[in-house]
Amino acid sequence: MGRTVLLMICIIFVMLVMMYSCKKESEPADLRYYEVGIKGNPADWRDSSFVIATNNNILISQIESQLLLPVDQRQIVNGQLVSGNGGYNKNSSHQFKWHFKEDNWELADFSIEIYDGRPFSDVDTDISYWLDTVKRFAPWSSYIKKEISKP
Prior knowledge:
There is one protein chain. The protein is an alpha+beta fold. It has one domain. It has four helices and eight strands. The protein has helices at residues 2-26, 57-66, 119-123, 127-134, and strands at residues 32-38, 49-54, 76-83, 90-91, 94-95, 98-108, 136-137, 142-148. Strands 2-1-8 form a three-stranded antiparallel beta sheet.
């Protein structure tokens, strides 16, 4: 009886450790969220902003420096597109069908023209083309607007 109880306790312990470690791997640690603004006055309100996230300390430092600059001097965002909103990419009530892969985006001075577009009117409305063919998004009128709490 004593061995059976000890064996059961060991099995339960191993299962709990496995469950906890699996959960940790599937959730990015300490993400910070930023609203990306779009300069100008987009015709559709859903094109006016979107949300990105990172836990890269070097990128976070670059963003903090960017936020000290006037909007017209800030760099654009350039990131790999991934399906789904990631649990955070939205503009008000609109949930985007895509998000930037958290560890594969950067700030840039410019990008190639094929990556330019609008978050809703271009990417959301032709999501297969953007995910399967273009694969990245770098709107030329984008800038980091502000840090936000998780939406």
